[in-house]
Amino acid sequence: MEKQKRRATAADDRVDVNAVCAGEASRCKTFEHNGMRVIGGGGITLHVVEGGNPAGPPILFIHGYCQSTFAWRKQFAGDLGRDFRLIAFDLRGHGESDKPGDAAAYTESTLWADDVAAVIAELRLENVALVGWSYGGYVIGDYLRFYGSDRVGSIVLACALTVKGGEKARAFTGAQFATLFPALNSSDPEVLRPAMARFVDMCVADPAGLPENDRVELLAAGERCPAVAREWMGRRKLDNDDVLAALDIPVLCVHGTEDAIVTLASSRHNAAVIPNARLSLYEGSGHTPFVENTERFNRELRELVS
Fold this sequence. Notes:
Blueprint: H1 2-9, H2 17-21, E1 36-39, E2 45-52, E3 58-62, H3 73-77, H4 80-83, E4 85-89, H5 104-107, H6 109-122, E5 128-133, H7 136-147, E6 152-158, E7 163-164, H8 167-170, H9 175-178, H10 189-202, H11 212-224, H12 227-232, E8 238-239, H13 241-245, E9 251-256, H14 264-273, E10 278-282, H15 289-292, H16 294-305
Parallel strand pairs: 3-4, 3-5, 5-6, 6-9, 9-10
Antiparallel strand pairs: 1-2, 2-4, 7-8
Helix pairs in contact: 6-7, 10-11
């Protein structure tokens, strides 16, 4: 009932999800900070945005499954930009980055690692803080495995996954999220859209508090991700415990206590594996503590990077 009320009151200011998917809704394109193109793994083009203080310590934000740089809108819009150089990019198959049609483009860990390395190299980032949300934890693991941590100063794992496939990983996926498959892998819009809408609502503890235009943009981001990407990035088998255990840089593991997508067990696992990692729990937040409790998240990120 509350969700229906929220959407009804926002009706006069709504944008259409089809228009957003087609790139025709300008009001949902406010998150553009010096957009640029970088050639990533396998020669694909990655969409990169940059903002903040160009002379400040760099922070590279890596979003999660079926999302985009829009996920980090509150970090770019807040006071972090006064002191830090802020960079984010759309993962392969997502947002405005290229969307290869072959499964191998999403299953090879070297390609995901090459994407991060390309952004770091092209923007000449040194001592960069990597912030990975959800699936972004896998991508950070890929980068560390093939490129090491020499150019990394610190890491934030936000409701992040680092182990995929097998018995060990089974406890890290939320039971509610698991029920959305196989619909989330469908190429049929009539099947995909209801599942994607449920996924977007699951990203926050209180869907009624999510602005409708933000919800539409998040839904459109999921629908823009092709079925081949959605399916095959989910089929990877990964265990990054070895590379995480070798880290000797500051790491913060953040998790919302009401996360319905990734269980708290995942962040507890990461914090236990990584030497001297700190676990920070956000009471009452869901899968996006950086959106639901922006002030605290930005403060903890600032403290880690400073």
